## 1
Amino acid sequence: MRPVFYIAALTAFLNAATTQAAEPATAPEFIDTFAKIFGEHPGIRKGHAKGFCVAGDFKGEGAAQTYSSSMLFSGDTYPLLGRFSMAGGNPKAAENSRSPRGLALQIKLNNGELQHFALLSTPVFGAKDPESFLGLLKTLIPGPDGKPDLAKVAAYRAAHPDTQAQAKYLADTAPPASYASTPYFGLHSFMLSNNTGQQQAVRWQLQPVDGVKGLTAAEIAAKPTEFLQQRLAERLKQGPVQFKLELVLAEAGDNLLDPSVQWPASRKTLQAGVVTLRSQGDNACDNINFDPNVLSAGISPSTDPILAMRSAAYAISFGKRLTGH
């Protein structure tokens, strides 16, 4: 990622944090809180601890060049590595649980640039800003009995309406039957710039070509099982798994800073490319830090403070993982 993006991301977070009534949340606090919730797992990612690597390629659509000069949309085919994962810091997370699924991608452009995508299977994030999200996480820290106080969690959500939308989506939507049969959402807003300097705010999402399929009620109620990696392996034997990259174009008045708010369904959506997954990637992702602020020229981050926070938190997690902590 170019240095200007790091500077812009960190500056955005610092400016946003100073306007909060609560004490500004810090990246180390998130890492420490995750450890209190999920325990210490040396050498494992602090977030999205359970997952596996995939490999494939990306081909952009020329129509997106109207909005961005990024080589991502040149129409060339670029190699990618990706990682499917369960949300949270539990490396043994139940795969039939009502929690988000993740998909992170690193695409290597032929000019040496990288483009990252970090997406969730929910169309909204769990809170509006770092402070609200950290407060929610702290209510999930287990008590002496090893379980969180659900009354405390409910009271926090009632006092912080921004934490309710994702929880409602998870309660109303069946967990994915396969990593290949769920949509993934970028959650944050990003800015596209074209060759004339015009800018367009967007959010991106991946739609599965296989269609959307959730677990049955019986599968959700069953004891925790391991099936997601096996199902993807079986699906790949039939041929590549594909997702369509869509850009949702913001209009005047759309909230660019709050990932807990979904834009209206009437917003124009542009197909911008196809992600093709061809195989599992073994250990190829182990040394990749899927920071969502790693962006190619022609794409830049918005000033969403949670997006900015992710760079710092990911960097700490990455450093701990590589040093076996």
## 2
Amino acid sequence: MLPDDLKTEFEALLPAGQSGVAGPSRRTALQAALGLGLGYAAAAQPLQAQTAIHTTAEGLEAGRVSIDANGFALSAYCASPTGKTHLPVVLVVQEIFGVHEYIADVCRRFARHGYLAIAPELYSRQGDASKYTDMARLMSELVSKVPDAQVLSDLDATLKWAGAHGGNLDKTAITGFCWGGRITWLYASHAPVKAAVAWYGRLVGQPSELTPQHPIDRVASLKAPVLGLYGGADTGIPQDTVERMKTALAAGPEAARASQFVVYPDTPHAFHADYRPSYRKEAAEDGWKRTLEWFKQHGVA
């Protein structure tokens, strides 16, 4: 059974009126996706009717790499401009669906702007998100078993790897989506990145053994300013929690006071996920532009 915090996030990801059980329409969408070789997470169905954004790897070094994370071989997807070194680094933190084609494409988009962008598989010690076809099982059997401490440590290892493979650790940032949005807030209070952008990540919640604190509990420790990009119609992240976070940030340290929110009216959860029906082109494009500007403003680019 899902914890209440994850249950609300899970429900926000489902299209209106859809349960967590994979039905015929979801299987049909999955079969179509596999036939096209898109590589999108099976549990993320249904897909959009139209093809999602695809960023070519031409001119990039892009693909899977292996990172030594305290003796564990941590897989990651990395993209950077071919032949370039001393690059600014952006950690890209997955949705609940793991590192699938959408997250890889985001890495390639950053690489086209001159970044070394890297997305580690942060569930890999617990299991393989790509093996799940049902979102409810993915959440209860895998996502809810992943400790925050493990995630933060693996991101540390990823950043270290990036520094040894062409990245400039004086210019680092982090961004994440959904599950990764919450992790983005936590990492900005954990490690000395220069800037962070959290896309619709949960801000509050009940503490547990694996998730002892949530972003609102970490405001006093923020080391980097965070730009929060949220949907005004997100059923999993009520607007009152955004307001509570704003109040906490205003009373926090310098990085907290420098943090900002942009809330897009009448916009659902996962509005940047261009392969899903939740995608909202105008908000997604505006958020992407703001992300690049935020990183540049805070000395990452």
## 3
Amino acid sequence: MEKYTVLVAEDDKAIRESIGIYLQNSNYNVIYSEDGEDAIEKFKNNKVDLIIMDLMMPKLSGEAAIVKLREESYVPIIILSAKSEDYDKVIGLNIGADDYITKPFNPLELMARVNSNIRRLYDYQKSGSEDKKYIEIGNIKLNTFEKTVFVDKKEVKLTSIEYKILELLMKNTNRVFSIEEIYELVWNEPAIEAKTVTVHIRRIREKIEIDPKRPMYLKVAWGLGYKFVDPHRRS
């Protein structure tokens, strides 16, 4: 079994080491960091498969660190923060995080989120060899092997969650998925935080649509959910 590495960026030593114990007991390698600048350096100098990032850290905040990391990588990032308001969660997801857990947290829930993100991104990449390699609708082309997306032949960078949502919808053109269905299929867990799906949908639109406010592809079915349509195909 492959052993994955998790970077824990948290300035509170007790919390940092506590998380490390749970990760090590679950067969993960652990790298520790106590500020945002060090987290970026540790990431650059090590093969990191997932990051747990506190927001309120010295030298460089977690938010700023995530923005810098997203300039060069789409490794899964789970935000760990004492900020529990929906607004703060939306901000965290908008800057590129994949998941968000508030303090105080249940260590078992944190481990479940870690396992889910690892499984979704890495284990999934090893499976599905019989799937169609390319899905091309209009000017959008998705490579299911390399997990890349191109719009007008130019690569568009998506987070792992954004990619999975887009792949799900493009593989099921015209089918309407409720936000609960999308959450359960992509996160592979009960729809506890289903409303975060709308944040990711908005970010996907900003990256693939010419006019995100008047989407051609990723459309809402009012009161029902979302669907991906081919604007050039006659119904």
## 4
Amino acid sequence: MLVCVEDILSAQELSDIRDALSTAEWDDGRATAGAQSAQTKRNRQIPLNSPVLPDLQTLVLQRLMANPTWVSASLPLHILPPMFNRYEQSETFGVHVDNAIRVNPQTGQRLRTDLSCTLFLNDPDDYDGGDLVIEDNYGTQSVKLPAGHCVLYPSTSLHQVTPVTRGARVASFFWVQSMIRDGGQREILFDLDQSIQALSATAGLNDATAVRLTGIYHNLIRQWAET
């Protein structure tokens, strides 16, 4: 399941993040890549010890958890602290699959990467190329979203960032271990939750059908969730 979520960040928050990133140092992105991925990865990242990183990570995490659609799609148990990358002229990340296990550098906790997330920090008009191309069960999908929007997709997917040919592509990226390990079950819960929200908006929160469906939703989570 690939889900695009709008308006994670406001225009002012995006401006503040870009200002902070403009003063930061950038490292070779291969520093955080696995052995295979490092062969095809050409970009730059904010180093994990950068003084600007903690505040930016806190802001992004707060906004993600305040977004009902993002929470509904991911049902997060653990989130790896967001990182930030930049692709300029001819920089790219070839076809790869993300590592199955990541380690939180702040806590040492291991995290299973169920979902990958890219949060776009500048608009598509700012650069050419730099498309996130994802191969999933529905074929190959190319994603290039407005600033402040994000895409959430299975970490099992083969994906790549195509070469940037003009400007710079700036984004935040991170991984999620979901309470619902199985992607098919997550998709069922997301579809059910979105249907409940739509029904509640038209019929009211106390509509009998909406209440019954909400009970089914929570009972499925009780059956499937890992906590």
